Amino acid sequence: MWKTRRRENSGAEALAGPARGRYVDAMNQLPLFDFGMPAPEPAPVDVDYVRKHVKAIERTARHARFMPWTELEAAKWERFLPDLCHYLPPEEGEALKSSFAAELARLRAATPD
Asked: What's the rounded Cα separation, in Å, for the pair 82 and 97?
């Protein structure tokens, strides 16, 4: 029969306490990726793209006779849609937020428990 030998811990696994911290600190390679360059500027938001998707979500709710999403998905859109509306002009964003909130309330009332 083959005899198996237990492999002894080596490297970081063998070290305990403060010695392990020194070993891990010595292995830190993050400075290898720092080229002294500033972080890139974030890409500008495409307002037309955001508008298209917010209106599609609101239209889905408006045309539905009963809740088109699970409660988890509805909660996600309820939380996420106002954040998307911040990228739109203030009047348009507020109108879409209030319209969506009203439709969501109507759908929740129409959906039996």
From this structure: 6
What count of Cα atoms within 13 Å lies in the side-chain half-sphere of residue 90? Answer: 0
Pairwise CA distance, residues 83 & 1, whole Å: 66
Nearest C-alpha neighbor of 65 from the set 1, 32, 110, 2: 110
pTM score of the predicted model? 0.64
**Considering only CA atoms, which of 107, 18, 5, 10 is closest in space to residue 63?**
107
What is the DSSP secondary structure assignment for residue 84, as one 8-state letter? H
CA-to-CA separations, 102 to 20, 23, 77, 78, in angstroms, rounded:
57, 58, 13, 11
pLDDT digits (tens, 9 = 90+) for 6-60: 555 555 555 555 556 666 666 677 667 767 778 788 899 999 999 999 999 999 9
Tell which residue, 70, 60, 55, has the closest CA to residue 108: 70
Written as one letter, the residue type at 76 is K
